[in-house]
Amino acid sequence: MFRGLLIMAMALLLTSGWGTDTYSGSGSARPLPLQATNADASSSQHNPLAAPVQADPVTPAVPAVLEATPIKNSTLNAVPIQHLALPATVAETAVVQQVAATAAKAAKTVYLTFDDGPSKITREVLDILRKQGVKATFFVLGNAAKSHPELINAIWEQGHAIGNHSYDHDYHNLYSGFTAFWNQIKQTENVIREITGERPRLVRAPGGTSGHFDDTYFQLLNQAGYLVMDWTVDSGDSRRKGVPAAEILRESTKDLTSSEVVLLLHDGGGHGESAKALPQIIARYKAAGYTFKVLDDSVKPVQFRVSAKAAGLDRLKPSNAWIASNILPNVALFQPGRTLALEVGLLEAKLNPGEYSIINGQYMVPLRAVVERLGGQVRWDQTSRSGQVIWNGRTVTADVSGGELAVSLPGGAQEKRAARVEIIGGAIWVPLRELLETAGHPLKAISATSEERRVKAA
Ligand SMILES: [Zn+2]
């Protein structure tokens, strides 16, 4: 074990390019300001408090608003007709129609979607998809993902897409008000990020949005950067318990003429009949000329209309302050940008764009994410409104109301320093430099390339 660490340390020394960094720590008279080394350091794009949602919104494709019974998408018919600039003879018309039919056939797409997993059924579904050479989208539950990370990995490794289907699927909680729904989306997102390294942007409402979502749900999720996706065809596999495979097949393949089908299926526990129907569902779509694709941000979201029932529910709307703290900074999580690599001792953690910000030239980071990814622990103390960090043999307190970081040193002495400690999106954010220093990890080097920013500490 010890020898392993030594070898790792040596390897690190050999590969870390001493002297080539922007700054070199030891022996340098130059202070380490922990400043971003590039010109965009003060850009408001990185400032979650001034997240430019109004000025620079995430603009997903305009949602296709559908009735609970969806409308067919017929936009493709328009394409070949444009070539008809001159009056056509009967023969020419026939040719054009034939071309149109071929084009429409070539452009038919089906998105298979599986909700409520992962479960034992997921393995079966994955095997079938692999054999058929077909990709699908899995809207997973956070609690199931947490107990079966290996299934999330299997889905991910096979190249399927993963969407967010809430943490526990409890309608009563999810539709009691937007913040309850939001908390489950974020909780699930964090579980998935820990497994795959990526945050899903796709969200499917348990039970669908119809009767559940009002304008607040749609608007805030959209504003936060998520893509809410209902479906165009319901396989009926969760209409009641034990729907037989033959019925699932019939319902799933009722309409094989639409240019775009988002098919709702389930791979949660008890959905063995869906897996049984799957090979034939795939076969029929293939025979009808469909291509199988996974959902992503290039697909026009399919969304049901807000029902009178949902609009009439007397639910608490989040305050502007809550929106500013939770929704607005969330957008940055899905914007392209550089990762921030933190090399602390022998450990390394990466923060994706949106998981850190640069304010007045200083890196601000979420306390828990950084400390836990680097081997420490964080506990929130409600009474003192502070985060208690146990890391590197020290106890550091991040005090939100007092705006300071305090460290208890071995021997009982305490040191305090003023620091910008803030709550953003329900998490404590602290300045990286102050955190590392109070935790006994002095800075060694800071650098930036076009791909990533990097901070090294002892
Ligand atoms: Zn569901």
Structural summary, described in words:
This protein is α/β, with parallel strands linked by helices. The protein folds into two domains: 16-53 and 335-457, Copper Amine Oxidase, Chain A, domain 1; 64-329, Glycoside hydrolase/deacetylase (TIM Barrel), CATH 3.20.20. The protein has 15 helices and 23 strands. α4 packs parallel to α11 (272-287) and α10 (245-252) runs parallel beside α11. The two termini are 20 Å apart. Bound molecules: zinc ion. Zinc ion binds next to loops. Residues 1-20 form the signal peptide.
Counting DSSP E segments of at least 2 residues, the number of strands comes to: 23
By CATH, the architecture of the largest domain is named Alpha-Beta Barrel
Hetero groups in this structure are:
zinc ion
Secondary structural class: alpha/beta
Distance between the termini: 20 Å
What proportion strand? 15-25%
Under CATH at level 1, the class of the largest domain stands as: Alpha Beta
Averaged pLDDT: 81
> What does the largest sheet look like?
6 strands, parallel
